[in-house]
Design brief:
3 copies of one chain form a homotrimer. Chain A is mainly alpha-helical. Chain A has helices spanning 3-34, 40-66, 102-123, 130-152, 157-160, 169-187, 207-226, 234-263, 268-283, 291-314, 323-340, 347-377, 385-390, 392-397, 412-415, and strands at residues 194-195, 198-199. A two-stranded antiparallel ribbon of chain A has the order 1-2. Chain A starts with a helix and ends with a helix.
């Protein structure tokens, strides 16, 4: 490994880092677009704080829980608070096989970690208490996510068991999706969503914002998957770009056809979530598939989306942005697809994939449920009904998202 | 060529790929901003599907039509369906002279190809039938665009003839613009645009969306032109950045001054299209010009924009976003500018540029016209007048772009 | 230095260049979100023109004023109009120690330069005359910014004096902030902002736009600070990414806690400006700090924001977007922090930092004040009161930002 190759690798990883960072803007835009106008400031506030809290808590202890450098094959280890740079590695080409520096390692993983918490925020939107959510997100990124992350990427027992998850269909997306499911069960649906007359749609307030969000997530996913090669290896990263792009494209087509067949209309939100479903689906095996396999995986993910959205509504799991369909369902699908298609396909692998996602899912669900329950019986997790009806922007932020009446806004209430 | 340089080159090409991807978000935002509120979901839907369909059809046959690897100097060749990786090239440094891998080659070109179809969508917005448009776009990216692409970039007869088009003023932009012109002629103007009392402006519904779109297109253009160097050659790519940026800047100034002189107002949409005009104009010769020449080319492109917009309105070519002015007019201008300014300037070259753009334009116009005509006499290409008046969002998508009434939205219409 | 490393370095610098370019979209979105609906087209127009004018004027004379290559330790030098490439350097690996090419040098610095002018536009929004502002911005980027830039980065007297400013807490942000302050003083507050009954908030019209702007600025800041390493040195650039990200995160938390303590509400605009404050704060020493120090610097910057916003309102400096708090106050803080934390901390350094920022601030304030004053007494700098009340979009642009009445829009007024 020479300095030039090390430098090129590190450039790639930092390029991927900023792309993953953009996913936070993608989530913020998508979720803002899919909520009602009266809750827009609230969801933006949550998304701005999640990335901030996520980076800080991952620095504080998450990184060293996920990559403790000890206990190979185990369930838990901790490398200490803060960052603990290995002796003499700061400038060493031999850190991570010349793929990147210690700092790059941290910041790339930190951006990743924060996305897991963001997945939850869409599902619980429009009725969760802000402070409860921020505490939940902090602990999720600081402790829960890193533990199952360690199982696989930190060299723990799932790694030893042969479980495969290239960039996190399970470790990031299904884990986030299971946590979201636990949170939604405890939180309950928005008032008026499920009535005696059936399911009442509560449409988002801005399709342009939602579409911008999905495009930015796709954009960022090139870093999410491309960076997971952990070097700039030309064949590796370019194959991942091809499979990622084609799966997303096929996800759009799958959702387009399926939703048209089911609902007889060209449903933009289904197509947007189909793209995301394709992306989540390819994530576990983006480096193992050929282009044709990537298209199949994405297509099936796209088909899953409309069925899943209807399914969750039938069982009264109220998820304003479809996060459970996208991240949980397609995360499971993508994890299993590694045992069905591509370089590792086989019954044995399929079985390993199944218990891997089940184990991570169970851990994420149980810990998220436990923490949310604790918050519910202490500070409470749901806003008062009148706050939900007035909208969280005014009730919790003293702000309007658009064209506020001067009398009702921001800090000037206090300083005048 | 060593591994490190190959890696750095490939990083550059993939970086350029994601920038070109972002152009699709740019087009989506720009077109959404320039249409009426009631057609916003429709244009977003179209743009989300175009990138999906474009990637898939370019994989299916477009790439091997454009780069068949046979018939040098010819008019047509086909390398087979799907991707057909040359023997042993996946990891070989000697593919493309060490500039990038086979996968990178495909994905960069696929992102490029999809932009050509997107150019059309803006011009036909607000009255074209969704399904007709998607069929048109699929065939355009799968067959028509690759054929003229082969003429030049695949080593066909225009390449042999000495025609120069660095990154596609003709191959992408004028081709897309001629196709747009053909489509608009067959489609006719929006109802109420040209009345007995004169031209009635139909303003776009969101200038912030339009401005975001133009900035994102400019952003992406650094990859569109920068990646067209086909390696990370330091002098090559950095010169292209300079000429691209200065031409865009000069385009803004040219359109600013001209539109102020013509209309006595500071017209934002002219300035935005002036930026795009400057970018389209520099694209054919971004690697041949010095900074001063780039400024001149961009300035003239910016001056062209307001005159062209007025001209197309005078001849009743109704183009809601100005795509014909930006891509067709400035694409022609940029192509000719290669014969006037810079390293290849000369009468002989100018003549070659002229018949190159004429040949590609004729092919694009005739094939697009033929296909659109076929669609018109079969499934129809124009929405019913009442759909146009109600807006396509409700008529074709059962959705509103903003703050939808719950009763009229999305899939829940079918599942309640 | 071999070709591969040179190439990787240059890729990094151009990657950083496009990120800094995106900051202009960030500023445009942020400022558009924080102004009233009726002034949206105007602020978008200004931001589109500033990047255009900035690039052109920096090409015309700014670059050669800032990096004249002569008069080391001095106050002023000029290398001639246009670009003047040193003999034989275009392709030479030895230009800038192999960090980048001459063209890269220019375009990276040009993107930087234009940000300084943009800082002013937010502070003077909603009442400044467009033409006066554009003249001001052109001269600021062409002459004033490069002169103080030369003092430090061009090798002038501040560099000799040991003043440290890694990426421009002083040279870009405080300079822009002081210029903004001068402009606001001459311009006066918006009508109705400060009344006999106290401060009247004038809330921005779109929090989603403001949030998108801040995320994009954070995104771009990775290039602003990352590119200021002036090569792709793996340890250097990755450490800067870590400190930049953590300072921004801590800025959000600092502003969150402080504004909650002061105003008892979760104020989104404070958190957004807290992020920006953290970014401005870390900019002077992003390469000198460890992660813990970066967090402290960002946290303090975040705490400064709400106090500063209240302070400027108390002294009737009307700044619609908080640019003086973010760029001026946190720019000063970040500059001083270099003397307090990190590798260069020390009383001597703190003193040097203090007079450095004072010197640059004094120059920026005095020259900006002088130029604005000249404009005030000649063409005037403030729009008529009735224009301010109707909104600048209609009064100066004949346009509406959203859903315009057809009769009142754009160029068709003139051509019908």
């Amino acid at each position: 490994m020479n300095e030039a190759l090390f430098t090129a690798n590190n450039v790639w990883m930092l390029f991927s880092t900023v792309l993953v960072f953009v996913m936070h803007l993608g989530f913020a835009s998508l979720e803002a677009g899919f909520v009602q106008k009266k809750n827009t400031v609230n969801i933006l506030f949550k998304n701005a704080m999640i990335i901030a809290i996520g980076l800080l808590t991952y620095y504080f202890c998450g990184f060293n829980l996920m990559y403790p450098g000890t206990n190979p094959g185990g369930f838990f280890a901790f490398g200490g608070f803060g960052l603990s740079m290995p002796e003499g590695t700061a400038g060493a080409i031999d850190y991570a096989g010349g793929g990147y520096t210690y700092w790059t390692d941290f910041i790339f993983q930190a951006m990743f970690a924060a996305t897991a918490a963001t997945i939850v925020s869409g599902a619980v939107a429009e009725r969760i208490k802000l402070d409860a959510y921020l505490i939940f997100a902090a602990i999720f990124v600081a402790v829960f996510y890193p533990i199952t992350g360690f199982w696989k990427w930190g060299g723990g027992w799932l790694e030893t068991a042969g479980f495969y998850d290239f960039a996190g269909s399970t470790i990031v997306h299904a884990a986030g999706g299971f946590a979201a499911l636990a949170a939604v069960i405890l939180l309950g649906p928005r008032h008026g969503k499920y009535t005696s007359k059936g399911i009442r749609p509560i449409p988002g307030h801005s399709m342009p914002l939602a579409a911008i969000g999905v495009f930015l997530l796709w954009f960022g996913w090139f870093g999410f998957n491309g960076g997971s090669v952990l070097s700039a290896d030309p064949v590796g990263v370019s194959l991942v770009f091809v499979t990622t792009a084609l799966a997303a494209a096929a996800g759009a087509v799958g959702a387009f056809i399926t939703s048209y067949a089911l609902f007889k209309s060209h449903d933009l939100s289904m197509v947007l979530n189909g793209i995301l479903g394709g992306l989540v689906g390819i994530t576990a095996g983006a480096d193992l598939m050929g282009p044709g396999e990537a298209i199949l995986i994405g297509l099936i993910a796209g088909v899953i989306i409309p069925f899943s959205v209807v399914f969750f509504d039938k069982i009264r799991i109220d998820d304003p942005v479809g996060a459970t369909s996208v991240h949980l369902m397609c995360g499971i699908w993508g994890t299993l697809a590694v045992g069905i298609f591509g370089a590792k396909a086989g019954l044995g692998q399929l079985w390993t994939q199944l218990y891997g996602v089940a184990a991570v899912g169970a851990f994420a669900f149980v810990t998220a449920f436990g923490l949310m329950y604790l918050l519910k019986v202490t500070i409470g997790i749901r806003v008062p009904r009148e706050h939900e009806e007035r909208g969280l922007d005014v009730a919790e932020h003293d702000m309007h998202a658009y064209e506020a009446p001067a009398e009702q806004t921001g800090y000037a209430l206090s300083v005048k």
